[in-house]
């Protein structure tokens, strides 16, 4: 029985979530967290939810929200129900804060920003803790002034808070280091820390999988769960992604936004495979399908140490995925890649030609730009433009070779064996190696010196187009004749 099956058999339904902030491009780290949450839920027949944490109104943008939705769609991380806007739930968050106040689990704090700043400045000067202890924590309502206030949680002051984490193990925080964090600001708006807990509870989230930079937040958020008598979710705080230099992944390492990886031309399935393997392992398995990942993935397999992003490994895995992807999926993803990169879309005729060429191409490309370049011979129209290396074949020797080959191709059955025999006869007659014949053929058929197999190209192009391109090349040689 797999880890997923055994857990499903003995636990309540799993509900995970991803909760990005729409303040910029969707980061590759967020994508991996979403993937882990998706795999964990899907492998156990559970739910995977999306919440947009858009409470920072100054920085949240509709464009960034759309970018998150597009990134999730490209990665194939389907979520259950509609995406939830955290901002739209502000009244519910405030309601919980007021409920905690009524229960005596929170209190009104009338300390001003200036008073708090002065306290911290004095504490720094004395080299003491800057943790603010509000003087209003135990002041009765009858002694409250008629002035603006915030609502703070009554955090425990003694003992310890232990975060039982599936990745980090038991992490202990001394309660005298936990602040009475603000739940509701003086303008009545809820804070992020309150909103996250209320939303996770209301959405029925059973497992919170997120970056380990939120580990300290878990200890603080647990005070809200305890105050409300709500069950804690299972926590799994995963390490961040580092660049090759061992530092947190950032722009200096190249692409960090999900849409950038689509624009570079990686297949989504390869990206899922690589991101799953980035910080999680299942034995020595490097290449696997979504189905295998869902069956194998569990929180125990996540490493504590940060993973290092390796572009070569990513390309390797992506190449293996392109090789096994259905042609229709490749064509659809190429449409998405061209749109994301701002390149010109393929015409219906080009798509048909590409579809016919895929069988002989997809085992040798690691990205879609590489695949398109290899398929160039099938996408271009006559007369085929030649690059500098291909033009080195423009000479009388090449012309003679193609002149000898043409009648053999005209009379050959158009299949691999017959074409091999036709070329073999010319090799024998002219006492040439295959490479000497393939060179001018590559230039004629593709306009490039490096191409897929000449036999593959001829089979994809068909008899009529192949002979027409050879004839074009010979005419070009005649007009620009240079002797060897």
TrEMBL record:
<feature type="short sequence motif" description="'KMSKS' region">
    <location>
        <begin position="248"/>
        <end position="252"/>
    </location>
</feature>
<dbReference type="InterPro" id="IPR008925">
    <property type="entry name" value="aa_tRNA-synth_I_cd-bd_sf"/>
</dbReference>
<keyword id="KW-0030">Aminoacyl-tRNA synthetase</keyword>
<feature type="short sequence motif" description="'HIGH' region">
    <location>
        <begin position="20"/>
        <end position="30"/>
    </location>
</feature>
<comment type="similarity">
    <text>Belongs to the class-I aminoacyl-tRNA synthetase family. Glutamate--tRNA ligase type 1 subfamily.</text>
</comment>
<dbReference type="InterPro" id="IPR000924">
    <property type="entry name" value="Glu/Gln-tRNA-synth"/>
</dbReference>
<dbReference type="Pfam" id="PF00749">
    <property type="entry name" value="tRNA-synt_1c"/>
</dbReference>
<dbReference type="Pfam" id="PF19269">
    <property type="entry name" value="Anticodon_2"/>
</dbReference>
<keyword id="KW-0436">Ligase</keyword>
<comment type="subunit">
    <text>Monomer.</text>
</comment>
<dbReference type="GO" id="GO:0006424">
    <property type="term" value="P:glutamyl-tRNA aminoacylation"/>
</dbReference>
<comment type="function">
    <text>Catalyzes the attachment of glutamate to tRNA(Glu) in a two-step reaction: glutamate is first activated by ATP to form Glu-AMP and then transferred to the acceptor end of tRNA(Glu).</text>
</comment>
<feature type="domain" description="Aminoacyl-tRNA synthetase class I anticodon-binding">
    <location>
        <begin position="347"/>
        <end position="472"/>
    </location>
</feature>
<keyword id="KW-0648">Protein biosynthesis</keyword>
<feature type="region of interest" description="Disordered">
    <location>
        <begin position="1"/>
        <end position="22"/>
    </location>
</feature>
<dbReference type="GO" id="GO:0005524">
    <property type="term" value="F:ATP binding"/>
</dbReference>
<dbReference type="InterPro" id="IPR020751">
    <property type="entry name" value="aa-tRNA-synth_I_codon-bd_sub2"/>
</dbReference>
<keyword id="KW-0963">Cytoplasm</keyword>
<dbReference type="InterPro" id="IPR033910">
    <property type="entry name" value="GluRS_core"/>
</dbReference>
<dbReference type="InterPro" id="IPR014729">
    <property type="entry name" value="Rossmann-like_a/b/a_fold"/>
</dbReference>
<dbReference type="GO" id="GO:0000049">
    <property type="term" value="F:tRNA binding"/>
</dbReference>
<dbReference type="InterPro" id="IPR004527">
    <property type="entry name" value="Glu-tRNA-ligase_bac/mito"/>
</dbReference>
<feature type="compositionally biased region" description="Polar residues">
    <location>
        <begin position="1"/>
        <end position="13"/>
    </location>
</feature>
<dbReference type="InterPro" id="IPR045462">
    <property type="entry name" value="aa-tRNA-synth_I_cd-bd"/>
</dbReference>
<protein>
    <recommendedName>
        <fullName>Glutamate--tRNA ligase</fullName>
        <ecNumber>6.1.1.17</ecNumber>
    </recommendedName>
</protein>
<keyword id="KW-0067">ATP-binding</keyword>
<feature type="binding site">
    <location>
        <position position="251"/>
    </location>
    <ligand>
        <name>ATP</name>
    </ligand>
</feature>
<feature type="domain" description="Glutamyl/glutaminyl-tRNA synthetase class Ib catalytic">
    <location>
        <begin position="14"/>
        <end position="315"/>
    </location>
</feature>
<dbReference type="InterPro" id="IPR001412">
    <property type="entry name" value="aa-tRNA-synth_I_CS"/>
</dbReference>
<dbReference type="InterPro" id="IPR049940">
    <property type="entry name" value="GluQ/Sye"/>
</dbReference>
<dbReference type="InterPro" id="IPR020058">
    <property type="entry name" value="Glu/Gln-tRNA-synth_Ib_cat-dom"/>
</dbReference>
<dbReference type="GO" id="GO:0004818">
    <property type="term" value="F:glutamate-tRNA ligase activity"/>
</dbReference>
<dbReference type="GO" id="GO:0005829">
    <property type="term" value="C:cytosol"/>
</dbReference>
<dbReference type="GO" id="GO:0008270">
    <property type="term" value="F:zinc ion binding"/>
</dbReference>
<keyword id="KW-0547">Nucleotide-binding</keyword>
């Amino acid at each position: 029985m797999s880890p997923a099956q055994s857990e499903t058999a003995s636990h309540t339904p799993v509900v995970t979530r991803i909760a990005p902030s729409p303040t910029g491009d969707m980061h590759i780290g967020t994508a991996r967290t979403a993937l882990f949450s998706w795999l964990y839920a899907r492998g156990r027949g559970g739910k995977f939810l999306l919440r947009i944490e858009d409470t920072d109104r100054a920085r949240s943008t509709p464009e960034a929200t759309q970018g998150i939705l597009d990134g999730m769609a490209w990665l194939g991380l389907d979520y259950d129900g509609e995406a939830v806007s955290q901002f739209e739930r502000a009244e519910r968050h405030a309601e919980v804060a007021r409920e905690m106040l009524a229960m005596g689990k929170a209190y009104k704090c009338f300390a001003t920003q200036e008073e708090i700043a002065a306290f911290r400045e004095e504490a720094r000067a004395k080299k003491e803790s800057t943790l603010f202890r509000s003087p209003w924590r135990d002041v009765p309502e009858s002694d409250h002034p008629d002035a603006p206030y915030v609502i703070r949680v009554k955090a425990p002051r003694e003992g310890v808070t232990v975060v039982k984490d599936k990745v980090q193990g038991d992490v202990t925080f001394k309660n005298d280091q936990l602040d009475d964090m603000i739940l509701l600001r003086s303008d009545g708006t809820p804070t992020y820390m309150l909103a996250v807990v209320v939303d996770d509870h209301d959405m029925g989230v059973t497992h919170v999988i997120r970056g380990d930079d939120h580990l300290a937040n878990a200890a603080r958020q647990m005070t809200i769960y305890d105050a409300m008598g709500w069950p804690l979710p299972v926590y799994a705080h995963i390490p961040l992604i580092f660049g090759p230099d061992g530092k947190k992944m950032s722009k200096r390492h190249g692409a960090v936004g999900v849409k950038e990886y689509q624009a570079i031309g990686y297949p989504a399935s390869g990206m899922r495979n690589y991101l799953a393997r980035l910080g999680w392992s299942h034995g020595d398995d490097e290449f696997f399908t979504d189905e295998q990942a869902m069956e194998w993935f569990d929180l125990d397999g996540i490493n504590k140490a940060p993973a290092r992003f390796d572009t070569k490994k990513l390309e390797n895995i992506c190449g293996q995925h392109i090789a096994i992807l259905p042609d229709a999926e490749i064509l659809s993803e190429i449409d998405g890649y061209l749109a994301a990169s701002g390149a010109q879309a393929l015409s219906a005729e080009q798509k048909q030609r590409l579809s016919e060429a895929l069988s002989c191409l997809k085992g040798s490309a690691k990205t879609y730009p590489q695949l398109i370049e290899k398929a160039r011979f099938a996408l271009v129209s006559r007369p085929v433009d030649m690059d500098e290396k291909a033009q080195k074949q423009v000479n009388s020797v090449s012309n003679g070779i193609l002149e000898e080959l043409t009648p053999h191709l005209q009379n050959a059955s158009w299949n691999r064996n017959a074409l091999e025999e036709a070329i073999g006869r010319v090799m024998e007659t002219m006492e040439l190696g295959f490479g000497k014949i393939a060179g001018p053929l590559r230039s004629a058929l593709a306009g490039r010196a490096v191409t897929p197999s000449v036999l593959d190209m001829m089979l994809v192009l068909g008899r009529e187009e192949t002979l027409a391109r050879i004839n074009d090349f010979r005419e070009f040689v005649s007009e620009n004749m240079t002797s060897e």
